[in-house]
Known about the structure:
Helix content of chain A: 25-40%
Largest sheet of chain A: 4 strands, mixed
Shape of chain A: globular
Oligomer: heterodimer
Radius of gyration of chain A: 13 Å
CATH architecture of chain A: 3-Layer(aba) Sandwich
Number of domains of chain A: 1
Number of strands of chain B: 25
Strand order of the largest sheet of chain B: 5-4-7-8-3-9-10-11-12
Strand content of chain B: 15-25%
Order of helices and strands of chain A: EHEHEEH
Shape of chain B: elongated
Structural class of chain A: alpha+beta
CATH class of chain A: Alpha Beta
Helix content of chain B: 40-55%
Distance between the termini of chain B: 146 Å
Number of domains of chain B: 2
CATH topology of the largest domain in chain B: Rossmann fold
Amino acid sequence: MSGAAIALYVAGGAPRSAAALRSLTDAIAASGWPEGSVRLEVIDVLRDPARALEAGLLATPSLALTGARGRRRWFVGDFGRPEMLAGWLADLMDGDPP
Amino acid sequence: MTGPGAHRLPTGIAWLDRLTHGGIPAQRLTVLLGQAGAGKTLLSCQIAAGRARLSGAGTIFAALEEPPADIIRNAAGFSWDLAAQSGRHFHALDLRPDPDMVFAGDFDLRGMLATLSAKARQTGAELVVLDGLDTVLGWLASPARRGAELARIGRWLEEEGLTAIVTAKAERNGSPVDALGPLEFAVSLVVALERREESGGTLRALRITKYRGSPHSSSAHALFVSRHGLEPLMGPGGDAPPASGERVGSGMARLDALLGGGYLRGSTALLSGPPGTGKSTLAALFSASVCAAGGRAVHVAFDEGPEQAVRNMRSVGIDLARHRASGALRLIGLQPGRDGPEQLLSEILAAVEAQDATALVVDPVSSLMRGGVADLGQSAVRRLVEEARARGMTALLTSLVEVGEDPAAGTPSAVSTIADAWITLGYAERGGERNRTLSIVKARGSAHSNQTREFVMTAGGCTLADVYTAGGAVLLGTARMEREAEERRLGILASLDHQRRLRELRDQLAEAEMRQRQSALQFEAARAELGLLEAAETSRLDEQADRLARTAASRSADGPAGEGANRGAPA
């Protein structure tokens, strides 16, 4: 699956931000996606609020996943339940975004 | 409180600034609570428009629930043009969450605040409306987390120098739903809005439930929706009507005379009476008179359409069509009962403004009060009167008194207490005939006649007939004319009688005088006779004595003659 982009919006180095990033990288690794098949961008909205405005961001941390078809999906929270994130990424891998 | 906390942002909405003693707290959080349809979004838009008008300041409107396009469309009917301000002073931001959004774990609202900061920098706005924040806060797991996020918003406002208004749904009793958590800590001002549908109309109310560090009025204030948005039904109160000595003609010269020159400009007169007593006619006379004198009038006719009103008035010689055509008169027909009093009030006020009216006629104002909620109706009328006073507009309100109804109760009395003048119309039945009557119950600022007049309507026009009192009762119509004739006849009789009596007395006097003169003559004659008699007797006695003396001397007699001799003897 090429062309998929993940944007993780965090607010500075808040504990929730770090936890979210850790959960996300773990989930991507566990999903077995080939290296480089997914673009991951971490956006600190405190440094770059214009990006938040652009996305119409409501909460942090939030993850925006844009699939190949350009459909954007939101995942809000610090991934306290990483298995949900993993399942979602797997569905996306199958080319059938939820 | 000192520092920024004491600083206020005037909302540009006069009544709200009055209730809050100067506006919403600057760089603080204000919460508008209420059920769906209570007017939270409306009031926030109204404040945004007010701020823009007041200082040209911009507002970011974060739409978290309703699409921004809907909000702008819903505001289209108001005097503040949100669509025109859009992009200049009003910056709507569609922040409605994606319905497919997945939640996993904890989060905070720093993302939203970053979005808003960016927008504020972009637009230079100073006010942020978070419309429907409860939906977003509701995602948070616990009340404590919600409270913490509200506190975060509060800190962010201070850092950014922004002021925020949050709208949120409330329970029926006006307390915030759980989603808002403990408002006491994070929020400086809480305004509860209420809306209740009743059979007789929509009751709206506003209450300030909290204003940290500020005096405020905590009582509920009834509201209605005018073309300016939410407005209190009760005006500020205490504002004395402008003291005007100027008079506005009633359309009937004789009534003007009774009122001391006409209605006082800027005053409100109530005209009450049973059906068919001429209320509508007097009302139309007034409207026509105002327009003829160069004024501008709004004439609200309940119960009949404008065309019908024009036709009816033509039959008593009042030409409303002419003034309608010139634009001086705005004649509107409203259906009582179709809408609640607050809605009717709103329509009347809109017409008054559009017409820039100097005079207002509501015929009858009792139609405005019809319906299930008496308080609402009374408040609507009160509001109308206050508006008239504030505008210096002369108002004439008619009020229907049902036959048999005590005019001291019900509509007339409720309005009469606030009206400056009260004229009652009625019928007097006498001699099998009904005649229209008019009397002035009160007229502030006027020396007025309190006597009942007869109100005469003919195709040629209307006027008042002279009052005629007899035996303490005021007489009208045929009874008056008969009584007048009878009085005239009796008067002539009395005059004849008087003249006869006068003649008799004069005769008697003349006779007595004559008799008196005769008596005097008799008296004189008798006295003269008496004098003569006395004189004759004296002379007779003298002669006799003389004769005796002479006889005695000749005879030298003595005895009894001696006396005679002594008497006759020289001393």
